[in-house]
Write a structure and sequence with these properties.
By secondary structure, this protein is mostly helical. The protein is built from 3 helices and no strands.
Length: about 90
């Protein structure tokens, strides 16, 4: 009787190992899909960042005078001593 129970237990272990192997294969496929999506997302984000950087570069090249005027206006409104705290650390 112990031999048949042992043989049944071995059969159950074999079946469990097959199930685990199948699950691991599915997990591998899912991880590959996730990795592919992450790579594509990173590429899209890099393209978006390059576009934003080019817009900022164009903005600062064309409207540098407006940026300087706004900074001077902020300095005048807040007062030099108050405004310098925001621009110079420890100031």
């Amino acid at each position: 009787m112990a031999d048949t129970e042992m043989i049944m237990a071995i059969g159950e272990l074999k079946e469990a190992n097959k199930n685990i192997a199948s699950a691991m294969s599915d997990i591998k496929d899912n991880l590959k899909t996730l990795n592919d999506h992450n790579v594509l997302h990173v590429q899209a984000v890099n393209v978006d960042h390059k576009i934003i950087a080019s817009y900022l570069q164009t903005l600062t090249a064309k409207y540098w005078w407006l940026i300087v005027a706004l900074l001077i206006t902020i300095l005048m409104i807040m007062g030099y001593k108050e405004a310098i705290k925001f621009f110079v650390p420890g100031g």
